Amino acid sequence: MQDRGLQQAFHPRSIAIVGVSRTEGQSPPGYTGLRFLRHLRDANFEGRIYPINPKADVVAGLKAYPSLASVPEHVDYVIVTVPAQAVPGVLQDCVAAGALDVLVCTAGFGETGEEEGTRLDGVIREIALKGGLRLVGPNSLGYHVPSARMVMYMETSSTPGPVAFVSQSGGICQMYTMQGPSQGIFFSKVISYGNALVMDSPDFLEYLATDPETDIICMYIEGVRDGGKFRQMVAQLTPEKPVVIWKAGLTPWGSRAAATHTGSITGDREVWDSFFRQTGAIRVKSVSEMADVTMTLQRLRPLRRARVALWGGGGGNIVTAGDTCAEEGLEVPPLSEETTRKLMEFMPLVNQIVVNPIDGISAFIDTSLLRRGIETLAADPNIDVIIMYLPAGMATRWPAEQVARIMEVISELSHQAPSGKQIVAAVRDEGKFGAAESFAHSLREADITTYDSLTRASRALARFAGYHRFVGQLPGGSGR
Amino acid sequence: MQDRGLQQAFHPRSIAIVGVSRTEGQSPPGYTGLRFLRHLRDANFEGRIYPINPKADVVAGLKAYPSLASVPEHVDYVIVTVPAQAVPGVLQDCVAAGALDVLVCTAGFGETGEEEGTRLDGVIREIALKGGLRLVGPNSLGYHVPSARMVMYMETSSTPGPVAFVSQSGGICQMYTMQGPSQGIFFSKVISYGNALVMDSPDFLEYLATDPETDIICMYIEGVRDGGKFRQMVAQLTPEKPVVIWKAGLTPWGSRAAATHTGSITGDREVWDSFFRQTGAIRVKSVSEMADVTMTLQRLRPLRRARVALWGGGGGNIVTAGDTCAEEGLEVPPLSEETTRKLMEFMPLVNQIVVNPIDGISAFIDTSLLRRGIETLAADPNIDVIIMYLPAGMATRWPAEQVARIMEVISELSHQAPSGKQIVAAVRDEGKFGAAESFAHSLREADITTYDSLTRASRALARFAGYHRFVGQLPGGSGR
């Protein structure tokens, strides 16, 4: 049998689950073999599933096998959920059966900080290296591949997309796969790799570099064993496939927790600062920031500068909007004399003056003004992108037809891109329960690139432009 | 007639609205006399309302008067919404009628940056000073007093409470009054004072210092004319009534917008940094942060340190939670040996080890463990406050009775305060539409001090402890 490398783990024709009980136990909580099995079946996984349980004939309606050796075909991917002590034995069975792709889900290894955990680490590492196992984990959930209907998470979409997520935390995989689709983010591969005892992030990056399903790579990292290789892989990927990284554990409390979570050495802040400067990886600090940057990479054309015209309403909102953009590193330049003159010709203004950010609420009342306003701003040579800063109350307090007209104009112009300029929306939460989230949803339904807040918009746009600036300055680089 | 000072403006027996049309005009948008009138009537304002309109006999069902002079009683508060050019004439009528408390809502004065606006500023300032008018504005919405059913904002509660809000932006008053109640924040006085041409923030602070309705003062400021007086007033107030300030316009773009919004000179960042250090005012940067700090001041007993034990679940969540606390300046100390030993006696742990933050999801499955866990942490001498870090998915994916039991234990223990320690909750948003907001709501309904995210919790607790530390170090100071 030809070994297909990691490809066979991501698109397996057969999966064995070792350590699958007939019923869910009480505690401790966490993933069980049965839960993996049920996720796979609920998602209509396209290959065969082999429960391995010497004490059962049938598990969840599927024929069970006493051991890996008794499975009647080659097993492409083995999920191991037996207790830590029993893992070495199972791995030896994998080697014997030639099943090279193995997920060890079980926790209780080096991350415990105890002698026994460290000893087991040594044992399984040796078996894996000698036997050529591509072992992912331990203490992880392995591979989630929507295009193979190989689903590991609850309440997530199985629609495939161009985003890979490589993460040391299965919980954060769960969050991103749950949150992504609302912002139009769908996944090629989601990789939860836990303690990284054998396969580490550079191995997955190597695969993703040539994965035709993947255009954007997101990562959640606590530590990396081979920093040099990691740096080199990311630097090599970045011009072709942007790499968005949430590096956790760079604070004393985060670092202490990381040692017990994945046994990682989280490293030094300055080393990581220089890593980001030198590789062009895009730095984020939460799932939301990761989603915002990814959405921006998916939807906007490259921008090396993000000089913003911000269109909103309300004096205090405009002042604080200017502050927010400035604090997040977005330029809000003065409008050109011509732009100012033109706007003042047709805009009924509260304070008889136009500055950027623009207090232009009247344009939301008469949408012909809105159209002229956006076109006028787009023609300004100092402006790269226009942010429509929309109060959530619009959707709850204004007449629905009026809001529909506003969304129509913004959606239409954002697709036309007058003077080649891009248009996005940011929602201003006014504190009314649920209003902001639901308005953002409607704007996205109208195919407008929408951020849940101006802070989130500014942060994502600044990072997006920073990425394209970096790539543009590389020798021979042209950006995506 | 005895002049009751500002008291008569906040609790007027009669209000005249000068410049009230029979119907709403088309544009520009913004406040009209008729809108003020309708808000007052809808809220069942307890005094008399006199519409002033020489061309109408009746406005919105109320008898109209041709001029202030024709009103049959003393007018305690005059709302002026006539065009800027007509404002000086109306102010002279106010002086003549002895109506000293006047709101000029109209915009179009110094904030336009034009010669005519500046000239009008001079004219109305002179009339006000000579005539002894306590003029608020121009370009503002004046006073909102729930206890007098004197309501200026839409979709706000008219339940009175101990929080005053003094703001140069009417829009931000609208946001805070709308958002506050969901976090248990209700208002004594909300003061929108716009350009501060005559009455400025120190004048309002002077009143609030002795206002028995007010315990906590929040402010949104763009500029202050008399910085020395302001500093002195805040420093004097701070030990008795905490002052929470959002100072806007300290960035280039915010500052430029502030000049056109309220004509304010926003000042220098270093000057304001030193103002905050010296007065003990609590600095915030959004309505949400203001609400979080205010909620904390209302609900928690004084804390000079906020050494936190954080109880959550999921390895990655615990690592990133540690990072969040560290970045927001909260201490997450190691647990004492005794605490660690006790927890390990009864907690089924994922990774067989206990560090702070605590990966203790199993305690949410068996609430007797939760109770013992919280009590054990509370007994730790290194811990001041316990944060229960709860995933939003609990409320959507877990059995309702189980979630009810968890909330019951947390609510009960937070009221008991075992070992004198305080317990709060922070919701972890997993990205499922609406889930986090709605779970936070349920937790507050269960009378648990709840923050919408761990970032918000950390930020508010760090500022809260900083305030009490400041006050505690004042000569003779003891904190609230």
Q: Which class do the helix and strand fractions of chain A yield?
A: alpha/beta
Describe the global form of chain A: elongated
* Gyration radius of chain A, in Å: 26 Å
Number of domains of chain A: 3
CATH class of the largest domain in chain A: Alpha Beta
Task: Please identify the oligomeric state.
Answer: homodimer
* Proportion of helical residues of chain A: 40-55%
Q: β content of chain A, as a range?
A: 15-25%
Number of helices of chain A: 17
Total DSSP E strands of chain A: 18
Write the CATH homologous superfamily of the largest domain in chain A.
Succinyl-CoA synthetase domains
Keywords:
homodimer; 480 residues; alpha/beta; Rossmann fold; 5-stranded parallel β-sheet; 40% helix
Short description:
Two copies of one chain form a homodimer. With 480 residues, chain A is α/β, with parallel strands linked by helices.
Task: Provide an overview of this structure.
- Two copies of one chain form a homodimer.
- By secondary structure, the first copy, chain A, is of the alpha/beta class.
- Chain A folds into three domains: 7-136, Rossmann fold, CATH 3.40.50; 142-299, 3-Layer(aba) Sandwich (Rossmann fold); 308-473, 3-Layer(aba) Sandwich (Rossmann fold), CATH 3.40.50.261.
- Chain A is built from 17 helices and 18 strands.
- The first copy, chain A, has helices at residues 7-10, 33-42, 87-97, 115-131, 170-179, 201-209, 227-237, 252-261, 269-279, 287-299, 315-327, 337-346, 367-378, 393-397, 400-416, 435-445, 454-473, and strands at residues 14-18, 48-52, 58-59, 62-63, 77-80, 101-104, 134-136, 142-144, 160-167, 187-192, 216-221, 243-247, 282-284, 308-312, 358-359, 385-391, 422-428, 450-451.
- The first copy, chain A, has a six-stranded mixed β-sheet with strand order 8-10-9-11-12-13, with helices on both faces.
- In chain A, helix 7 links the parallel strand 11 and strand 12 (243-247).
- In chain A, helix 3 (87-97) runs parallel beside helix 4, helix 10 packs across helix 17 (454-473) and helix 12 (337-346) runs antiparallel to helix 13.
- The first copy, chain A, is elongated.
- The two termini of chain A are 39 Å apart.
